[in-house]
Specification:
This is Sugar phosphate transporter domain-containing protein. Keywords: Membrane, Transmembrane, Transmembrane helix. It is a multi-pass membrane protein. This protein is 77% helix and 1% strand. The chain has 319 residues and is mainly α.
Amino acid sequence: MVTYCTLYVAQRLNFFESKPIDMKTVVVFGILNGLSIGFLNLSLGFNSIGFYQMTKLAIIPFTVLVETIFLNKQFRYILCLNFSCSQKIKFSLFLLLVGVGIASVTDLQLNLLGTVLSLLAIVTTCVGQILTNTIQKRLNVSSTQLLYQSAPFQAAILFVTGPMMDQYLTKKNVFAYNYSPIVLGFIILSCVIAVFVNFSTFLVIGKTSPVTYQVLGHLKTCLVLGFGYTLLHDPFTSRNILGILVAILGMVLYSYYSTHENKKKQSGDLLPASQVLLLFLFQLFPRTTSSSSSSFLNQFINQIFDFFKKNPFWRKHQK
């Protein structure tokens, strides 16, 4: 709700222009994001820290799976040495997940309720982040406009379910708590930080992808471990160091190959010259049946024009 109020003031001050979005889309999207936050917190409450970290690690492969199956999202096939960039991106994500797992997963304690909550957290988080990216691109709205429209519904679902869940789990009423000035100060600080977190989340997912946002989230995990050791003198083992180094290597590779793929997309979908020549020859010679040299020359020229008119990669880049 603080996020909505902040954006409302910003909109009234003309920092951005409000854009109407289909109400059904906004309601479903806001409720889904609210449930995602709730299930993640419940997963942390009912599982060990190690299993909760495994839940967060599972979000990346599940996101890739959902986008591949339901959105038909595929990486462009660009040759990079002996592997495609798609394979190298997946390998870099694998390195990242292994590294974060080594560095942060310590104990795995399983229970049925915690496992179910973790699965619900994974599903709602993945779908919510995919929708964050898809809605912005398909409806041509900015991250600020989408957040402004959906924040009230996200706050509403948390306001209704949060206190009831706290009452059920802790047997305490959150409204009956004696809030001291220090506690209120930290709550206000938390709300201010949450505004920036919500804004940056929608911005990063909209400008990049849900997978890239999760990669940044795991970078945060590595930084938390590092700062915990340097500032708070938390225990730090060789396993933590190895995991962080492997994770950083995966992040660097992911950034490199993703940038390389985006540059290829921006430069166009032109095929390599050798493939163009092969396609042209395959189309040309089966249809060249005339023995007359002049007839052959005319047909050769016509074949050239027919070839470049028919192939989409040429037509796409014609000015």
